[in-house]
Amino acid sequence: MAGNIFGELFRVTTFGESHGEALGCVIDGCPAGLEISAADIEKELARRRPGGVYGSRDEKDTPEILSGVFEGKTLGSPIAIVVRNTNQNSGDYGELKDIYRPGHADFTWDAKFGFRDWRGGGRSSGRETLCRVAAGAIAKKFLALSGITVRAWVSSIAGLQQPSPGEDDFDFDEIERNPLRVPSKNGAARAMAKIEELRAEGDSAGGIVTCLATGVPAGLGEPVFDKLDARLAAAALSIGACKGIEFGAGFAAAGLKGSENNSAENSGGGILGGISSGQDIFFRAAFKPTPSIGKPQKALDREGKTREITIKGRHDVCIVPRAVPVVEAMSALVLADFLLLSRSNRI
Prior knowledge:
By secondary structure, the chain is α+β, with helices and mostly antiparallel strands. It has a single domain (2-342), classed as Chorismate synthase AroC (Chorismate synthase, AroC fold). Helices cover 26% and strands 22% of the residues. It is built from 7 helices and 17 strands. The chain has helices spanning 38-48, 106-113, 129-144, 185-201, 228-237, 258-263, 320-342, and strands at 5-6, 11-16, 22-28, 63-67, 69-70, 73-74, 79-84, 99-100, 149-157, 160-161, 207-214, 242-247, 271-272, 275-276, 281-287, 297-301, 306-309. The strands form 5 sheets. It has a 5-stranded antiparallel beta sheet with strand order 1-2-3-7-4, with helices on one face. Strands 10-9-11-15-12 form a 5-stranded antiparallel beta sheet. Helix 1 (38-48) crosses helix 3 (129-144), helix 1 (38-48) crosses helix 7 and helix 5 (228-237) runs antiparallel to helix 7 (320-342).
């Protein structure tokens, strides 16, 4: 399964299943001398964990650095990180092992491999994203040496739009103060009420994550098949629930005149011709509603028969707030990779 490897020079391989013994990653290509600790990784993993509003499986997610770090610095050799599963409850899925849950990868995984881990989706579970966040923590530390930061927030949730940077109610500091990771105290209160309403109905919600990368130098990216925005798009869309992405003005640019779009600040989202312009890079990624809901649903089983099911277990009403550190991690991995690649572009 070559799809478990991401990147060219800053290269990450992830492993593990939702209800297996552990999950983890191996990072190859990280330069030597970078200061890194398990606490740095755990801090990012804690942001991915559910809070009180989610109602889903909650684990401490303590990372163990097995190799590649000595006396607090990277060695230049592969960095192996593992996180043990400690709170899996496979019994929640016993009744569904021969049923394809609506909106999940159950059927497609079976169609591809003819065999699957039915315990919480196995490798296709959202829990796999902790591997990305662990690797992203190291990429963020590497980018920081060059003055590059990556920040994301929930800009829309359950159909409720949140303020944008520059608007009165937008507050960067508020993002990590509320469990929904929206940049507005008032917006968080309204969204929380909607989320609780959906929880009571046994339903779920989706939303949009906006990502902003600052300090990115001009010149990152390749002009034809390996454009920076194409790689960032692939990175975001590799996150299980992500269903769309747009840079800068995005789809709205299709309705503008050339004069309007050319003069619009950051119309390309900080990327022109697939190469960073030196401006801030920003994009929006859309996430679908959690498919595991408490309402009765129709589903097919392995014999092709229609069954009515109610999915049990611990599931997020909305995964979008937990997607914020994942989007940051995937973006950081792309930028770290291109930053290393850029060092070979000139004599």
